[in-house]
Design a protein that fits this description.
By secondary structure, the protein is mainly α. It has one domain (15-134). Helices cover 58% and strands 11% of the residues. The protein has helices at 15-24, 31-58, 68-76, 78-90, 115-134; strands at residues 92-99, 104-110. The protein has a two-stranded antiparallel ribbon. Strand 1 (92-99) and strand 2 (104-110) form a beta hairpin.
Length: 139
């Protein structure tokens, strides 16, 4: 079971299957989906390389330099692991998650009135993990 409560099988025509393959290591089942996942991985590598260069240019002389491998490792499970921690911390049930290039969609149910706390925790953890990729180390 994945974080959304569905089985980890990847649908061949699913765009989220391609994203899921980039983040969790699952392989898409069809040739077309594998080709799309590889193209997305190449685009992600280009974007990560730009982020790494920008982060290293903005970092101070005593701060550690970020490598492309470090950036890949950080990006691979960022949303899933962050969502799992916030879900466990705030006791919410996640029904759906769609990660887009510049935003995400969540369908969640809370047992208590803690939706604001869940979203605050989730967004804070995402920010903590993204700051090193953008060169904002201690902000």
């Amino acid at each position: 079971m994945n974080i959304c409560g569905s089985s980890p099988a990847v649908s061949p025509r699913s765009a989220s299957g391609c994203i899921r393959s980039l983040t969790s290591g699952l392989e898409p089942s069809s040739h077309k989906a594998r080709r799309a996942a590889k193209a997305m991985a190449r685009r992600l590598d280009k974007r990560l390389a730009k982020l790494v260069n920008r982060a290293n240019a903005r970092s101070g002389p005593l701060q550690p330099k970020l490598t492309l491998e470090d950036a890949r490792r950080m990006a691979r499970g960022l949303v899933g692991s962050t969502l799992a921690r916030a879900q466990k911390h705030c006791d919410v049930k996640v029904y759906a998650l769609v990660v887009m290039s510049n935003h995400l969609h969540l369908v969640v149910q809370t047992r208590k009135k803690n939706l604001a706390a869940f979203m605050g925790d989730f967004k804070a953890r995402i920010t903590e993990n993204l700051n090193p990729l953008t060169g904002r180390w201690n902000i």
